Amino acid sequence: MASSLNSHSLLCLLILAIFTSSEAKDFLVGGNENAWRVPPTTTDSLNQWAENNRFQVGDSLVWKYDAGKDSVLQVTREAYLSCNKSSPIAEHKDGATVVELRRSGAYYFISGAEGACEEGEKLIVVVLSDRHSLRALGLAPAPAPAEYEGPAVAPTSGAARSTAAAAAAALSTGMMVVLEILLR
Ligand SMILES: *[C@@H]1O[C@H](CO)[C@@H](O)[C@H](O)[C@H]1NC(C)=O
């Protein structure tokens, strides 16, 4: 009885995890409506915002800005680095831009306003593949740790790693249980 209860709660947990991870999200760029502008400080604030978020295939980026004064250009890495506005991949100037992230990898955006990219109005968004998101949830094995980490590895980090590995193994077992239930 206890074991069937356990697999039921595990099933719920896994279904919750699967739904949570597959639900497409809309990200308002910069976290607020006035964020697509030259950052007030020299720190790369739009990219800091991006680094604190997890973007997945199917999510969308949303920009709100004054259509008369600004625009959003999706560009190549080279154009991003040199703030080259001359031949963007896509140009959006409607003031309420939505870009769906349809593939994993890096997306590069710069402002179309004169001189704004040079002053930091630009954004890199890295979209995780499904495999990465499964790994983040502990449902897929982490990449093997490098063997040449050196002698400076504290024993606790080894213990933590094997605990994590055990947890991942337990979750994989749970996944098999779920598959068995579904295939029955
Ligand atoms: C900007 O990009 C275009 C198209 O790729 C290129 O022809 C041009 O030389 C670039 N301009 C600068 C200043 O790099």
TrEMBL record:
Coiled coil spans: none
Record carries keyword Transport: no
Membrane topology of this protein: Lipid-anchor; GPI-anchor
Keywords of this entry: Disulfide bond, Glycoprotein, GPI-anchor, Lipoprotein, Membrane, Signal
InterPro entries: Cupredoxin (IPR008972), ENL_dom (IPR041846), Phytocyanin-like (IPR039391), Phytocyanin_dom (IPR003245)
Phytocyanin domain sequence ranges: 25-129
Listed name of the protein: Early nodulin-like protein 1
Species: Canna indica
Lineage: Eukaryota, Viridiplantae, Streptophyta, Embryophyta, Tracheophyta
